Amino acid sequence: MTITKKLVLAPILVLLAVGVTSAFTLDSYLQSILKDRIKQELSGIAASALVAVNALGQDTDIVSLDGLADRLSKSSGARITFVDGEGVVLGDSELLVEELRQVKTLKSRPEIQSAIRGGYGFSERYSATVDSKFMYVATQVDFKYAKYQQDQAAKSRFIIARAALPLTNINIAIASMRWGHGLIIIASFSAVVLLGLVASRLIAKAIKNERIVLEQRVSARTREISLLQNMSGLLNACTNEDEAGKILTQILPQLLPELKGAISIMKSPRNKFGLLASWGGEWPGAKFYKSNECWALRKRHHHTSREQETNVVCEHFDETLTGEAICMPLLAQGETFGVLHLISISSHVTDNEFKIATSAAEQIGLALANLQLRNDLRQQAIRDPLTGIYNRRYMMETLQQEFSRAKRLHSTIGLLMIDLDHFKKFNDTFGHDIGDLVLKRVARELRKNSRAEDTVCRFGGEEFCLVCPDISLENAQYLAEKFRKRVRNLDIRIHHKPIDTVTLSIGVALFPHHAHDAELLLKSADEALYRAKAEGRDRVVVSLVNKAGVKSQFLLI
What does the radius of gyration of the chain's CA atoms come to, in whole angstroms? Predict the structure, then answer.
């Protein structure tokens, strides 16, 4: 049985039980009330009969008492009987005088016995004389009737008046009342059944509508969760911020279709934020702003422009902003990595949209934190911490990749090995801080004057290396000479005093002219570097080792 049927059937069964119980209770109560009324009525009739007997005087005989009983019966509708103290019938409205003498004594009747003992008697029983169930009430009074005493000198000196009514009227009244009550119960039951059927249909319809709404909510929530999970997975797979921005501009408009939004991330210096992505049309805000221009960054939690009947808008929004704006900081591990901005042009941001935005902000903050951490770790793994250029490990990986590419495309690779001349002198004379400064300045010049496709690395100590793909031998020599002259012209001062001139020794080798693999190419460039240092330093030397490993004479530049 369904819940709807139970809801309809339960009140019907309750009503039926209440109706049956109330019918029996009311029937019993009304019977008691009617009997009490008849009893009171009979008591009054019997008392009136005794008053009438007193009015006849002492010359009363059986004929006069029987006639009085007939008259009282006609006026009251009750059966009237007069009995003496021995139970002898002196008069009866239902019997003739001749019949009275044939009636046996009534002294055994319960009501007569009670009246003799206490002056009042009551009983209910079936009467064979009239074939009906009667209610009897008997009362007595002292009375002297002379003529009767002459004939019956031994009789008692009081008369008992008995009034009786059939209970048929009570049964008829109760039966009619039962029919009326039954009709009321049937009508009520029918009305409840009808209302129950109508209510069941309304309830079923309401449940169906509620189920549809619930299914829509579940479907929407499932879609939101799926989009959030997909966004989180894609963001964690991104290798840079630009890729993350493209992912956000595709997924966030699906999560928050009624809102215009943007993501800004922290830039260097760390008190500035720049726009990473935006959606929903032209963004009504600054592309770059300082941290103190956003209330969310000041409070370190979300800020709503129309909160608590106020209208406090962040300074990075345009003055023409008309809708409600929300800024949510993108936090992870206690640090701020960016801000999620949302604008509702038509109305205000709903609670559901706010919850979705909060969940999205949490995931975006974690993703940006992971992305930055991965980038930091990657940079630490491939960058030299002092100079900021690539380290030897990264150079070797790059060289292998370039060799594979060059062999596939039949192109060339130039390799420049660079060493600072007499670098120990800078450390011994000026200290390691100045030595580190010299390394930084040299690395900056190499990075500044190399090509975009070249890879500049710190090979170790005061040695540097450049991997130059797709370059001729002449251009490689020219580039090496350019580095040497630039470094020689560096103006490095200590307390406004210039230090000694920094010079470079450079060895140049080219694939495929000097080697057929990366190891041999590196060895050829390194040998050329040693020759440059052996020939007096501050010069560029090109390797003279051919692909077969045969050495020829030095070539000095």
Answer: 61
Here the tokens at position 288 are 């770059």
Report DSSP letters for 60-73, one per residue: --HHHHHHHHHHHH
The whole-angstrom separation of Cα 224 and Cα 215 is 14
Show the tokens assigned to 43.
């008591």
Q: Where are the beta strands (DSSP E) in 433-554?
A: 455-460, 463-469, 493-494, 497-498, 504-511, 539-542
Distance CA 217, CA 223 (A): 10
226-258 pLDDT tens trace: 888 888 888 888 888 888 888 988 998 888 888
Token pair listed for 85:
């103290």
Measured between its terminal Cα atoms, the distance across the chain in Å is 102
For 369, phi then psi, to 5°, come to -65, -45
SS3 content of the chain, % helix, strand, coil (to 5): 50, 20, 25
Token pair listed for 266: 């922290």
Q: What is the pLDDT of residues 257-270, one digit of tens each?
A: 888 899 998 887 66
Determine the Cα–Cα distance for residues 49 and 555; give it in Å rounded to an integer: 165
**pLDDT value at 147 more than 60:** no
Domains and CATH numbers, the chain: 3-172 (3.30.450.20), 238-379 (3.30.450.40), 392-556 (3.30.70.270)
Task: Give Dmax (Cα) for the chain.
Answer: 189
User: Of 404, 411, 272, which is closest to residue 338 (Cα–Cα)?
Assistant: 272
Q: How far is CA 328 from the centre of its chain?
A: 21
Q: What's the CA gap between 476 and 417, in Å, rounded?
A: 11
pLDDT tens across 177-219, in order?
777 777 877 887 787 778 777 877 888 888 888 889 888 888 8
Count of CB atoms within 10 A of residue 467's CB?
26
Which residues, other chains included, contact 300 with Cβ-Cβ below 8 Å and sequence gap of 6+?
A: 329, 331, 336
* Cα distance between residue 258 and residue 335, in whole Å: 30
Contacts (Cβ under 8 Å, ≥6 apart) of 446? 389, 418, 456, 464, 466, 483
Instruction: Give the CA count within 13 Å in the CB-facing half-sphere of 511.
Output: 28
| Three-class SS of 263-292 | EEEEECCCCEEEEEEEECCCCCECCEEEHH
Find all residues with CB under 8 Å of 412, minimum gap 6, and list them.
406, 469, 470, 471, 472, 510, 511, 512, 513
Write phi, then psi, for 99 (nearest 5 degrees).
-75, -20
CA angle 233, 237, 238 (to 5 degrees): 120
Q: Enter the pTM of the model.
A: 0.55
Q: Do residues 163 and 80 lie in contact, with contact meaning Cβ atoms separated by under 8 Å? A: yes
DSSP assignment of 207-226: HHHHHHHHHHHHHHHHHHHH
Burial of 153 (0-12, 13-18, 19+ CB in 10 A): exposed
Torsion on CA atoms 418, 424, 429, 432, rounded to nearest 10 = 80
131, with CB counted inside 10 A (0-12, 13-18, 19+), is exposed
